[in-house]
Amino acid sequence: MAKAGTRRDKHRRRDGMESSATTLVITIAFVFLLVLAIILSSSLIEAENLRRENAVERAYSDILMALRMGGDVDRMMRDEHVLGFGYYTHMGTPLYVWGDAYQRLPLTSFPSGTDINGSYSSYDSTTGVIDTVRYVSSVFVSPENLLRESGSVIEYPDLIYISFDASSYAERVRFLIAISFLACIGILAIYLIVLYIFTQNTRYRETLRRQESLVRLGQAARTLTHEIKNPLSAIRLEVAILKRNVPPSLIDDVAIIDHETDRLTKLTDKVSDYLRNPLGNPQLLDIVQELRILISLFPEGVRLRNDAEEGLLILFDPDRLRSVLENLIKNGVEACEGMDIDVEVSVEASEKDRCIIYVKDKGIGLSESDVKRIFDPFYTTKIHGSGIGLSISQQFVEAAGGRLRLYPGAYGGTTAEVILPLQARS
């Protein structure tokens, strides 16, 4: 049995490590995909912004070239998506204005300190319009395209203003941002779905493992019933004969045989109970009254908290309820071995029409590995325990629509928690 328990521990640790490793690999893979999607999206958006800036520079250069060399400036500005163009003196006085350009350049709206070869641009992402002002040296232009009073070069730096329609670029950037956002959401959704499927698969595997344990337990029960109970009956009969015939000095030895035989008989009965219909014959029971009757059979250290409310009705088979509660309280008493018995039982009603029963002891407590395996058939932390009592109790509670769990207490010891559906008072 110890070797089998060790093997099960190794299998659980291995399964846990494999599950954690698989989850980590899945997470890393999807994080990589998410980062890749973000980098790709950022690159596409940056490329679109560069194309927009390049279009502005190309429009600026082509218009200046047309002004220098001559040509159809109007057609060129329309082809280059220019909304307005203005050529101004350093004081903002217009020399040439086309389209939506300022009739007089508002110099105070531009940042101060821009040097003679500098520039200023503003981009309105809502309208997709780019306003650009360039400080340049005087430009030689064709008289037929730009008239000056003397045709000579102005001695001061000139200002060139361009209003550029970048709405098509803005739409593409918004489209890329939307696609990128949807792609990230999609990757996250796929990750959560994959993780959910993997988690469910892990739970199914655990359920399958438990079912396999039940199958093995059923086979063991049949073996116990047919191969052990009959010899045990014969042994008990012979022990009864020995008690009447052996000398008084051997009575204690015969009592040990009788005790161990009785323990094996009870074990076979418990295994049979585990596999029988766990629901039994449910009846309406007042849980507080049932606990008061049961606790009176235990030592003084076992007590029911004073604020327990009567009238909390549950639907449970009386014998099975007694088996569950007796097993939990007995475990609490045995956990206090070698110290003062301190077991508190309490009952409360939750807001979700549930009855919660707590059995809290101040005993030796449970380790993390014990908590994970405490309901496994034949697993026990006791020297003389069978490891079947909690498994049977869990079967009975779950058959009644409830839940049973054990966990370390807040101030030491162990807390057993039984949650059962409450029934309406008639």
Q: Overview of this structure, please?
A:
The chain is of the alpha+beta class and 426 residues long. Helix content is 52%, strand content 18%. Strands 6, 7, 8, 9, 10, 11 and 12 form a 7-stranded mixed β-sheet that branches. Strands 2-1-5-4-3 form a 5-stranded antiparallel β-sheet. The protein is rod-shaped.
Class of secondary structure makeup: alpha+beta
**Largest sheet descriptor:** 7 strands, mixed
Poorly predicted sequence stretches spanning 5 or more consecutive residues: 1-8, 113-117, 143-155
Approximately how much helix is present in the residues?
40-55%
> Percent of residues in beta strands?
15-25%
Distance between the amino and carboxyl termini: 50 Å
Rg calc: 43 Å
Reading the helices and strands in chain order gives: HHEEEEEHHEHEEHEEHHEE
- Count of DSSP helices? 8
Identify the overall geometry.
rod-shaped
pLDDT average, as an integer?
A: 77
**Strand elements, count:** 12
